[in-house]
Amino acid sequence: MAHANRLTEQVKILTKRVHELEGALASRGQCRPEDHSGVDNVSAEDWTQEIQGVSDTIGTLSIGVNGQIKYHGESAGSEVSCAKWCGYEKSHLPVEILELVNSFPFGMRDCPHDKYTLLPYLPSRGRALELSDLYYKHVAWMYDPVINAEFMARIIEPIYGSTEDICLDSVHSHTLSVFFVILASGVLHDPHLDKQRLSDQYLALSRAALALDPIFHEATCATVQALFMILRYNYTFDRSSTEERWLLIGLCVRIAQSIGLQRDSSGWQLDSDEVQRRRRIFWEIYMYDAWTSIVNGRPPALNLQHTDCRLPDDHEPFITESGEKQLGWHAWKLRYAVACLSTSTQHVFSANAPPYMALLDLDKKIRLHPVPPHLQSPVRESETHRSWASDPVRAMQQYCILCERESNLLYIHRSYFAQAIRQDSDDPLKHQFAQSVLATYRSACRIISSLRGLYEVHKGDATNCWFFWSSVFSACIIFGALVIESPSCTLARDALQEFERTLPFYEEGSATTRPPSTLSTLRKLLQRAQDTFRAGGKDINTVNPRIPELPDELEVLEGRKSVIQDRRTSSSP
Questions:
Q1: CA distances from 131 to 108, 117, 181, 354, 436 (A)
Q2: What is the pLDDT of residues 237-258, one digit of tens each?
Q3: Domain for residue 276, yes or no?
Q4: Separation of alpha carbons 141 and 134, rounded Å
Q5: Domains in the chain: how many in total?
Q6: CA spacing 20 to 30 A to 135: which of 70, 273, 499, 528?
Q7: How far, in whole angstroms, is CA 551 from its chain's centroid?
Q8: Quick one: residue 570, left, alpha or beta (phi over 0 = left, psi -120 to 50 = alpha)?
Q9: Which letter does DSSP use for residue 153 in this model?
Q10: Where is the Xylanolytic transcriptional activator regulatory domain (predicted)?
Q11: Sheet of 69-72, strands arranged across
Q12: CA nearest to 299, candidates 349, 369, 244
């Protein structure tokens, strides 16, 4: 009934939108084909029929005891159903600063404080440079919305000048927020301090600084940078903040649009550094928004069709021994976002499933997207023409490229994979979606085998990246689902063996970065897969009925339609 009501409401909204579009098109007389995509030829009744035929893999709703609802779409990462882990500790700061922290991100209506309230917490110039160096070495390798040159010119020099006398007169509070979040990230890589407490304090100061001037009236490029870097801090160091990150990226996008970052700045007579800065900020946000939308199974906030912003220059190209220039990591990832992620989001979030051939075309596009030689990584130990870089940062970027590409393939194929192994459990390789079965299985294998290689060379760095292990978790879910749903498939035995080999690897490598509940989930799934395989295809879940309110974990993890009723009491009033 609830599902029917939701679809009815969707139909009403979409029908209204169709009428609006028809009116707009009629008033314009004519429109380029790419602007309307045939909407003017579709009646409200036809649209209604299409919506009623929406895919069964619409994802999961989790409903709290007081009606709180969270949506996880069909492409959502497998861990959305696992309990979250929160290790955040409150910082000991005076009441006036905590007031600001609690008003983040919108700020106070009549703020009685100013940026000099934060002055006692600024470190010396030397200490600030130490922590920023740690940030740029250990954190900014993945996303870099404030490059080092900008940090020095726009933050360090205005605050410290050529002396140790700190001056905040020319520094906007939102720029100060950027400064503090860089310190918060950097200090976590300092081995000589009570780093978690100090990092929490710097993060609180970053939030407080942003709240000093309301974002409704004081939005600048620094506002967008600060919000983005705060949510990136949460992504890297606080795995319990998924919903906050999701909301912050939406806010970040709206502010970026309000200051015109989606439009190219070259026509506004800005200096070249500012043009590059605006382009860099926009595309870093676009990349993050597109990727996290696929991982969370929710539509992105940005659409490529709504921007003419050019890509920024490659500020860190790789120069070979022969002097050849190759794309650096940051330049590559933005080009991948334009070429592949944009199409992936359109495919994944279409309410009416696109033709299967469109998926195969997208698969080919992802696989053929070029990777610079210095960023190519070995997948198996037997490969001799590729090797892991001795520099841990470049090695991490090597794995990121492979992991992103293979995870991208896994996410776009997964719902088709799930249909194939359920609808043709005897031999899903004869199903019409057999190519998705093979693609999903191979991507899962490559994600794991490549991480094994990175782990052997750069164990500490690989261990610290929780999202690497999240991909391994998703790969194990694929193995378990294949064995349980299609134990007679020719891939089932290999999938089970790979699952059995991977679980100890996951347990060792993810011990300090993943919630204990994820390991428990994998152990239960492996046991179920082993029992099913040994029983000759009889799933033990058919022998031990589930609680009616709790869907089969595979229904949730495969992205199929399900509702989770959370019986825990809410902490909200």
A1: 30, 22, 11, 48, 46
A2: 876 677 889 999 999 999 999 9
A3: yes
A4: 11
A5: 1
A6: 273
A7: 26
A8: beta
A9: I
A10: 245-318
A11: 69-72, 60-63, 562-565
A12: 349
State the residue for tokens 């089969």: 552
CB atoms within 10 A of CB 526: 19
Tokens matching residue 537 = 């295809």
- 3-class DSSP state of 110: coil
Evaluate if pTM is beyond 0.85.
Answer: no
Q: Which of 142, 150, 138, 196 is nearest to 175 (CA)?
A: 150
Tokens 């899962």 found at:
444
DSSP 310-355: PPPP-SS-EE-TTS-EE--HHHHHHHHIIIIIHHHHHHHT-SSPPP
DSSP 8-state code for residue 450: H
209 to 119, 285, 361, 365, 462: CA distances (angstroms): 11, 21, 47, 43, 33
Range of the domain at 149: 95-306
Q: Which of 373, 409, 414 is nearest to 559 (CA)?
A: 414
φ/ψ of residue 447, rounded to 5: -60, -45
Alpha-carbon distance of 96 to 478, in angstroms, equals 50
Q: Are strands 325-326 and 69-72 parallel, antiparallel or unpaired?
A: unpaired
Whole-Å CA distances, 55 to 50, 52, 344: 10, 9, 17
Cα–Cα distance measured from residue 474 to residue 446, given in angstroms and rounded to the nearest whole number:
12
Does 573 score more than 80 pLDDT?
no
* Residue 417 falls inside a structural domain: no
What is residue 170's DSSP assignment? T
Mean pLDDT of 161-175: 88
Which of 285, 158, 193 lies closest to 230, judged by CA?
285
- Return the structure tokens found at 57: 């893999």
How crowded is residue 185: how many other Cβ atoms within 10 Å of its Cβ?
27
Sign of the C-alpha dihedral computed for residues 23, 27, 30 and 34 taken in this order: negative
pLDDT tens string 435-493 = 999 999 999 999 999 999 999 999 999 999 999 999 999 999 999 999 999 999 999 99
Determine, yes or no, domain membership for 150: yes
> 505 with 452: CB under 8 angstroms?
yes
Q: E-assigned strands of 181-220?
A: none
Domain contains 484: no
Task: Tell me the residue type at 553.
Answer: E
> Which residue bears the tokens 């059995």?
500
318-319 and 325-326: which strand pairing? Answer: antiparallel
Residue type, 501: R
* Alpha-carbon gap, residue 8 to 11, rounded angstroms: 5
Backbone conformation region of residue 137, classed left if phi is above 0, alpha if psi is from -120 to 50, else beta: alpha
